Amino acid sequence: MQTLLNMLLLLGASLVLIKAVDYFVKSVTKLSHALKISSYTVSFLLVAIATSLPEAFVGITAALEQESVLSYGNVLGSNIALLTLIVALPSLLNSKLKTESIFKSKDIYYTILFVLVSLVLSFDGTLGKRDGMLLLVGYAVYTIAFIRRSSRIEQLLESFERRNVAKQLLIFFVSLLVILIASEGIVRGAINLSTLLKLEIGFIGLTITAIGTSLPEIAFAIASVRNHHEKDVMGDVVGSVVANTTLVLGITAVIFPINTSDPDLSVSSNIFLLIALLLFYIFTRSKGNLDKKESVALLALYFIFVLFEYYTQF
After folding, report:
1. CA angle, corner 92, sides to 39 and 191, nearest 5?
2. Which partner for 189 in 6, 64, 92, 111 could form a disulfide, CB atoms 3.0-4.6 Å apart?
3. Which residues contact 254 (CB under 8 A, 6 or more apart)?
4. Please, what is the end-to-end C-alpha distance for the chain in angstroms?
5. pLDDT tens per residue across span 88-103
6. ∠18-38-84 over CA atoms, to 5°?
């Protein structure tokens, strides 16, 4: 009976999530037009932070319960999913996903830098408060630089003053709230099922909660492609990886130190993250787009990662 109820929770929350994301994508497009800034900028800043909130909530909750290893596994799993599964799915739908924007803006290089920094900081087996503060400062500095590069703050403020964006902001935040609630339902259902199946917390963080908290990004990516806003996908992906690696890990580590050498986490997850990052870089740089063959390769890597982590937990 419990299994059936959790499956119904997953199904119902997924249907709500799909509808909410549709409104969310439309509000993002209208906000970018109203503020006279590119949808890529909105996706990198607003959408990336918004869709990373589930990871942040999981991180804060796990840290308060002194189970921060769950947050670390969740971030690793989410980033691997972002660099493989989440870019591959819309690319398969659209045949080719344009990737020039992340190279013109150099955001891909900053993404790589932040991932490497977080891995280096974790080499001693712990992400402590100082490490967390460093990651948070890095995110703040980069975000300020991004805003200044993309559009002057004064121009944004003037746009807010000149144009009535209240309605779109309301739709944005209401749909975001529904997305977060639906994602929470999906995550809770998945965790309950995993408990019934007796899976370890490290594996749960790397796979089940990682996919659950990445559902907003997955839904946003697919909806963006269907609405012909392919650039938004890349902005959300690199922005979410940066937010997960700095903001989410930083907040979690400041609240409670993360034991990155916990036996529930294998070194292989870090290796898979580096491989995913390398393939993502090679594929997105090669032709200025991501084609179906490359997307299949990324999907294969993700499924190999999940299978490997599943069999090594026993």
Report:
1. 85
2. 6
3. 129, 132, 133, 136
4. 27
5. 888 787 657 778 878 8
6. 50
202 in Cβ contact with 265 (< 8 Å):
yes
| Mean pLDDT of the region 242-249 | 91
Report all structural domains of the chain as residue ranges with CATH numbers, in order of start.
2-312 (1.20.1420.30)
Per the CB < 8 A criterion, the answer to whether 159 and 34 are in contact is yes
pTM of the entire predicted model: 0.78
Name residue, tokens 């993250």. Answer: 273
d(Cα 241, Cα 203) in Å, to the nearest integer? 20
Largest CA distance in the chain: 60
Contact between 39 and 28 (Cβ < 8 Å)? yes
Residues 209, 18: contact at Cβ < 8 Å? no
| CA atoms of 269 and 309, how far apart (whole Å) | 8
CB-based contact 40:168 (threshold 8 Å): no
Beta bridge partners of 96: 291
Q: Please list the residues that pair with 126 across neighbouring strands.
A: 259
Query: Within 10 Å of residue 7's Cβ, how many Cβ atoms?
Result: 13
